């Protein structure tokens, strides 16, 4: 099982000081957070993609390529790659390039994006969001697997004899997660291709997450990729920790109250009761995160949001120390207990390459 962090890259005033970081400071802070993630033994760093204020990560592969040069082990991913407003040809090229630069330490998470004004900025219509996601990914899937592509669809110009370059590293496409909070069509899409399904798991109650994950698992099996238990599931989550739970609540409350995503809504107490948000001690984080398995089953990737809502970099790095030293080691051990033998590990470039070689060996044996 993989553990890591994801960021949405918001530039938010610190409510306790009133100071807003510059865009440069925020971008540099995201890099520092990624480097800290590797230092404390996490597996994954993922960045969102946004093209509107108050967010800065408009070019995820630029940032991830820079981080790749400064890390050795960390898997570099996205927590959203906008399959709707990006050209699938450019996605194919950008992430294949990143694959080579990072020696395979990369995957990506497809998402539709829910910010209406962004669609017309890129010449798209949000009312076609699901159709764009389906058509664009169908093309992207082929671009990584076919050396020469002929294609025609509704939303971009046709391709004739087109080869996307560079080709994927070792002939193995980057692993794709399809991220969704509430769209069953995206769970269906992930299942159809045998890809991973990532549920954000921040805003919604457990019964909603359970329904979405079960839909994906059942449809994964329906399309013949394996049993429901063999489907590849990832979950999000958000935590804020101090050794004393009362200190955590007191310190995080002003950030929660004005957070750009959920601020000015339910109280901190109501939100933590009704959603996966955990504000408290490391032990409370461990207990609540382990409970995710009760409604999502045995899953492969757990990412935490740690740097949202104007939290200063110093505080985020302290959070990562707690996560890496006191929380994740226990989660690794506990999640491994009673894990059925048939549940696969989280995919990596090495495992996908090995699987491809196994298939080739089997096919060669059949021909002989």
TrEMBL record:
Oxidoreductase listed as a keyword: yes
Gene3D superfamilies: Luciferase-like domain
InterPro entries, A to Z: Bact_Lucif_Oxidored (IPR050766), LLM_FMN-dep_put (IPR023934), Luciferase-like_dom (IPR011251), Luciferase-like_sf (IPR036661)
Keywords: Monooxygenase, Oxidoreductase
Range of residues in the leader sequence: none
Residue ranges occupied by any Luciferase-like domain in the UniProt entry: 1-295
The UniProt record lists the keyword Iron-sulfur: no
Pfam families, alphabetized: Bac_luciferase
Listed NCBIfam families: LLM_CE1758_fam (TIGR04036)
Name of this protein: LLM class flavin-dependent oxidoreductase
């Amino acid at each position: 099982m993989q553990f890591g962090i994801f960021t949405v890259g918001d530039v938010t005033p610190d409510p306790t000081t009133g100071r807003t970081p510059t865009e440069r400071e925020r971008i540099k802070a995201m890099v520092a957070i990624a480097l800290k993630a590797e230092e404390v033994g996490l597996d994954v760093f993922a960045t969102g993609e946004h093209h509107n204020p108050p967010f800065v990560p408009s070019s995820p592969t630029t940032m991830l390529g820079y981080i790749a040069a400064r890390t050795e082990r960390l898997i570099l991913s996205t927590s959203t790659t906008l399959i709707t407003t990006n050209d699938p040809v450019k996605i194919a090229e950008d992430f294949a390039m990143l694959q080579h630069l990072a020696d395979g330490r990369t995957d990506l998470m497809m998402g539709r994006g829910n910010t209406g004004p962004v669609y017309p900025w890129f010449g798209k219509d949000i009312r076609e969001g699901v159709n764009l996601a389906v058509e664009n990914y169908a093309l992207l899937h082929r671009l990584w697997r076919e050396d020469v592509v002929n294609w025609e669809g509704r939303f971009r110009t046709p391709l004739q004899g087109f080869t996307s370059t560079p080709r994927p590293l070792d002939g193995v496409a980057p692993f794709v997660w399809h991220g969704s909070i509430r769209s069953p069509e995206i769970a269906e899409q992930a299942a159809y291709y045998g890809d991973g399904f990532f549920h954000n798991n921040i805003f919604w109650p457990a019964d909603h997450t359970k329904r979405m994950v079960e839909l994906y698992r059942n449809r994964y099996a329906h399309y013949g990729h394996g049993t429901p238990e063999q489907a590849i599931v990832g979950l999000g989550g958000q935590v804020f920790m101090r050794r004393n739970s009362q200190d955590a609540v007191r310190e995080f409350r002003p950030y929660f109250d004005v957070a750009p995503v959920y601020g000015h809504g339910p109280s901190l107490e109501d939100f933590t009761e009704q959603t996966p948000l955990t504000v408290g001690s490391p032990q409370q984080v461990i207990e609540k995160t382990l409970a995710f398995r009760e409604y999502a089953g045995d899953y492969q990737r757990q990412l935490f949001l740690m740097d949202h809502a104007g939290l200063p970099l110093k505080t985020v790095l302290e959070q990562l120390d707690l996560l890496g030293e006191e929380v994740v080691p226990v989660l690794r051990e506990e999640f491994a207990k009673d894990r059925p033998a048939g549940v696969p590990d989280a995919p990596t470039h090495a495992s996908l390459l090995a699987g491809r070689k196994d298939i080739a060996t089997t096919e060669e044996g059949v021909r002989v």
